[in-house]
Specification:
Layout: E1 2-3, E2 10-11, E3 19-22, E4 25-28, H1 32-40, H2 43-46
Antiparallel strand pairs: 1-2, 3-4
The chain binds zinc ion.
Zinc ion binds at residues 4, 6-7, 9, 29-31, 34.
């Protein structure tokens, strides 16, 4: 199982149609809304990299 980075749900990567690749990593989503949300601002969901706070 994979984890939907937007809502935290478990997603079966073998059956979901909602997936996106970002910087070489494939992410899986429970539905299209989560995928679109991720694609609009992936940095908000993958963390790791330090990001600007931007006042
Ligand atoms: Zn989701």
């Amino acid at each position: 199982m994979a984890i939907d980075p937007v809502c935290g749900m478990e997603v079966d990567e073998r059956t979901t149609k909602d997936k996106a690749t970002h910087q070489g990593t494939t992410y899986y989503f429970c539905n299209t809304d989560c995928k679109e949300e991720f694609q609009s601002s992936p940095e908000d969901y993958i963390g790791g990299e330090e990001r600007e706070t931007g006042t």
